[in-house]
Design brief:
Two copies of one chain form a homodimer.
Chain A lengths: L1 H17 L14 E2 L5 E6 L6 E5 L5 E7 L2 E7 L1 E4 L1 E2 L4 E5 L6 E9 L2 E3 L7 E4 L2 E8 L6 H5 L8 E9 L4 E9 L12 E5 L8 H4 L3 H10 L7 E5 L31 H15 L9 E6 L1 H12 L6 E5 L9 H9 L4 E7 L5 H14 L4 E5 L5 H12 L26
Helix pairs in contact in A: 4-9
């Protein structure tokens, strides 16, 4: 008993003391609170504030037309709603009922952007942190796939590889499905590329890749696969805090151009993955997809290595037609099982995505187009991944007709 | 040329569009800026603010005495400094020259805590986010070990394991040293435990474990080793966002007690690690250390498994003497190569740490004590890890004298 008391005392002391770990205390306020009717209540304590608002993608967006070098595009600005001040300087706002999704928001306090101090859940997008919450209105909706359920979980690893082409060590994030560590099976690989402001953490953090894959695989809707998310910006070796230059993120076009293109350096990625993971190699077992800049990169990679990727996904980003006519002919000569273009109706990229799809149709090349609502946003890219992943590695593409093939299916895969 | 133009146009479009990824724009302000004389300038834009301050552990702390259940302890509150308003509503403050460290800070805007919107580098400690920056005043100082240098990098993996004892899937973070993926070597293991408000991400994020290990190993100051950082709070299976309950973090004592202690569930951790990693097993190759609650847990684990851990590190947390006298006698009968107690002079745990050290001395048990400045803070725990890791696995402890041994060194290790 005496021992127990002393242990308890020490524990109390240690814990009281470790409260110092944080610079500030908890707020004692619950925000956001997801209500039984799928409305969401936001709360914020500040007796001195005059106007408190919430802005986020759970509110109806306000389309704004912008002109970039003579090209008009629609920018969907997030909506804004007012919180009402209540007793004790606690401001509140309750949303309309929401559909299952992962939502981002921030407060505007007298016009000044602030994080929600009561919500520990945050995501970084390029250089901006926002609060997030996930809502699952019913099983199987989009938000449900982004949440963690009691299903077998895969691993997420941050791994360094050598890129002789870019003359640097670089980092990639690798999802291996549940059971990978225990077994001997070889798995097909999806290479999943981020946008121009992203890094190797983007798909795992903002994209909820591990949760989507865990849930789809557990339901039998996707084949177990390895998902490789390399850093695709040549001048960044890794995400902020993990890189030598400890960089502040910027968009990829704000720095000088490299003489190396993605097609030059990507073999370094694939060589590392195929050497260090139990990979089912070959056209039928290899997919590439990406968002925005990563969509363009995926297009370019399939053009340069037409016998490598049996599945191609272009999310809100495509390559040019002009100059690549013969390249596309080669790509489709292999009869990829899926060449999937996805874009939002309010996305400035849509005009070029549609143009590519129409040109492919005219050539008789079998591609699919998925048009979603909304613009150039993560909300769409998570949905695209959820849809695309379910189509992968389920059927063997036809044997390729022309030119030589890369290493064939090694027969290790059970489908 | 036409193709190049079109590709460039698409790229521009895609990037302009992907700026929408973020809810807010960049600030265009550099903060913090580390100056050549190791002073640091903080900048913050807000023309409406009346008082802007910065608070953080780079400022001299203000000791405050608090009374917890009749026990007095010193709480070192971070210092506060005023920013001065300049043209355009940009507030600035420049610190005194700083020593190499990882520092945390926040702004206080009219008394209201805010993040630095210009600094993408943040850490979460329990439920509180703060901005951070790393300063390396000269090679080899503390801050230097927390930065990423051009040395071989190990991998950091978030891995799920099954705990039959706690009847749940749980997550651990595993550091494997550079070269692990390519080779066949077996490595010794340091089990590294977090505090009562932490989770499996704490040592990797706040503790900079991967950077410390990469740099120490590259310098030849530490042996290549695997570092296993499990979630040590029985009711949390994983960090926020990775767990089924999607929890808001709390301190471990704010929930009901489990009937299971760390010594009950820890074999689940070790069984998983020894099964799935190339582990050099046995007393000489196994270390346990932790901070605060994790220090107490490390103490308890060595008491319950005296033949398992050849190296024990108690950082700002110890177990009770009373009731464990015979247990300690068994621990030291094995003659651990290192039994290391570290604590800050301003830490409330110090009185019990000293008491344990004196009792061990009186019994003739060979332990070491390291007293640092400061209190119960991450700044100390990073330093303790940097010191402790250099002492590990360098010499074989003497053959154990009493009782049976667990599996002996399997001879796979090259020292």
């Amino acid at each position: 008993m005496k021992r127990l008391f002393l242990v308890a005392s020490l524990l109390t002391l240690a814990m009281a003391a470790s409260a110092q770990q944080a610079l500030g205390p908890g707020t004692g306020i619950v925000s956001p609170e997801i209500n039984p009717d799928n409305t969401v209540t936001f709360r914020y304590h500040n007796p001195k504030a005059k106007v408190v608002q919430v802005t986020g993608d759970f509110l109806p967006s306000r389309p704004i037309e912008v002109d970039i070098n003579g090209q008009k595009m629609v920018y969907n600005a997030p909506g804004v709603a007012d919180l009402q001040e209540g007793p004790g300087g606690v401001w509140t706002y309750t949303s309309a009922p929401l559909t299952g999704e992962l939502y981002s928001y921030s407060f505007l306090v007298d016009g000044h952007r602030e994080m929600d101090p009561s919500n520990v859940h945050q995501n970084r997008d390029v250089a901006t942190w926002t609060n997030i919450f996930t809502l699952s209105a019913r099983p199987g909706d989009a938000g449900w796939y982004y949440e963690v359920h009691n299903v077998p979980h895969g691993s997420v690893s941050h791994v360094w590889y050598d890129s002789p082409t870019l003359n640097s060590q670089r980092r990639m994030t690798v999802y291996t499905p549940a059971g990978y560590e225990s077994g001997n099976q070889h798995y097909p690989v999806l290479y999943l590329l981020h946008g121009s402001g992203g890094d190797e953490d983007a798909w795992a953090d903002l994209g909820r890749t591990a949760q989507i894959m865990d849930n789809l695989i557990a339901e039998g809707k996707a084949k177990p696969m390895i998902v490789v998310m390399p850093n695709g910006v040549w001048f960044n070796q890794a995400a902020p805090g993990a890189a030598v230059n400890n960089f502040q993120p910027t968009m990829a076009n704000s720095r000088s151009q490299s003489t190396k293109e993605i097609e030059d350096s990507f073999p370094d990625v694939m060589n590392f993955v195929e050497k260090h993971y139990r990979v089912a190699k070959g056209y039928s077992n290899t997919a590439v997809a990406g968002l925005s800049m990563g969509g363009r990169q995926s297009c370019m990679l399939s053009l340069h290595y037409p016998d490598t990727f049996g599945y191609v996904g272009l999310f809100s980003g495509v390559g040019a037609i002009e100059g690549n006519e013969e390249g596309f002919a080669k790509v489709f000569a292999y009869e990829p099982k899926l060449y999937w273009i996805a874009c939002g109706k309010a996305d400035g990229v849509m005009v070029n995505a549609k143009r590519l799809k129409e040109w492919l149709d005219f050539q008789g090349f079998k591609a699919e187009m998925y048009e979603s609502e909304g613009g150039h946003i993560w909300r769409n890219w998570r949905v695209y991944l959820t849809m695309f992943a379910q189509r992968l590695f389920k059927q063997q593409p036809k044997a390729p007709k022309p030119v030589r093939m890369s290493s064939a299916n090694n027969g290790d895969v059970d489908f």
